[in-house]
Amino acid sequence: MAEWCRFLSGQIISVTNNIKSVINVTNYASSTATEALEIAKNTVETVNDVCSELDSMKCDQKKVQSENDKLKEKMIRLEYHQCPNNIAFDVIKETQKETYEECKQSVLNAIENIPDIDTDSVIITKCYRNGLYIKDMTRGITCQFPNYSDKATIMKGHKQLSDGVYVNDDYPVEIFKKTTSTI
User: Fold this and answer.
1) What is the pLDDT, as a whole number, of residue 62?
2) How many Å is the maximal CA-CA distance in the chain?
3) Which of 50, 153, 157, 164 could disulfide-pair with 114, CB 3.0 to 4.6 Å?
4) Quick check: 167 and 154 in contact, CB under 8 A?
5) CA dist 8 to 18, 19, 155, Å?
6) What are the tens digits of pLDDT across the range 10-53?
7) Strand, helix or coil at 141?
8) Using CB atoms within 10 A of its CB, is residue 4 exposed (0-12), middle (13-18) or buried (19+)?
9) Distance (Å, rounded) from C-alpha 183 to C-alpha 180?
């Protein structure tokens, strides 16, 4: 029986050691899980902070976009009001090194066939070709008249213009696109 007691005592010591090992492993796993849980909580807080900052940035971006749209509309209105007496002439021949005076004279020559207009009394305050010179291409001419009556007479007599010249009101591009898209 003494041998049996020694055997059981050895088994009890072995089981006790195994239980201590399991307890140690469980404690380590528990501390690791606690650390992982703490890291996850911190990550969730960080993600929430980033999301709130992102929402704030989206709101700010919408405000900036709204202000930008308002400024664009205001700029278009200002451009439009700067050129109420402007006319855009198309299909007027040009030379490579055309001067301001030659450009102005080309417009006067184009409108000389209109019966109600005296080209000697027409005043042109601005007259210029649009864009860069490209050989074998005709650029349009934009003219500004200080008197609305000159502009109105030219627009009414557009059918009498020489050499198939076309005229249009000189609107900003955005307004021109809106008017042509609604037609």
Assistant:
1) 94
2) 142
3) 157
4) yes
5) 15, 16, 120
6) 888 888 888 888 888 888 888 888 888 899 899 999 999 999 99
7) strand
8) exposed
9) 5
DSSP class of residue 183? -
Question: How far apart are the C-alpha atoms of 171 and 182, rounded to whole Å?
Answer: 15
DSSP for 5-50? HHHHHHHHHHHHHHHHHHHHHHHHHHHHHHHHHHHHHHHHHHHHHH
Residue 131 backbone phi and psi in degrees, to 5: 85, -170
- Answer whether 140's CB lies under 8 Å from 89's CB: yes
Which residues on adjacent β-strands are paired with residue 143?
A: 87, 127
For the cut 70, the answer to whether the pLDDT of residue 182 exceeds it is no
Distance in angstroms (rounded) separating the CA atoms of residues 127 and 109: 14
CB 148 within 8 A of CB 123: no
CA 41 from centroid of its chain's CA atoms: 40
- How remote is the C-alpha of 148 from its chain's centroid? 35
Closest residue by Cα to residue 168 from 66, 47, 55, 83: 83
Q: How far is the C-alpha of 126 from the C-alpha of 82, rounded, in Å?
A: 12
> What gap in Å lies between CA 115 and CA 106, rounded to an integer?
18
Tokens representing residue 81 in the block: 């009001």
Edge-to-edge strands, sheet with 141-144: 126-129, 141-144, 86-90, 166-169
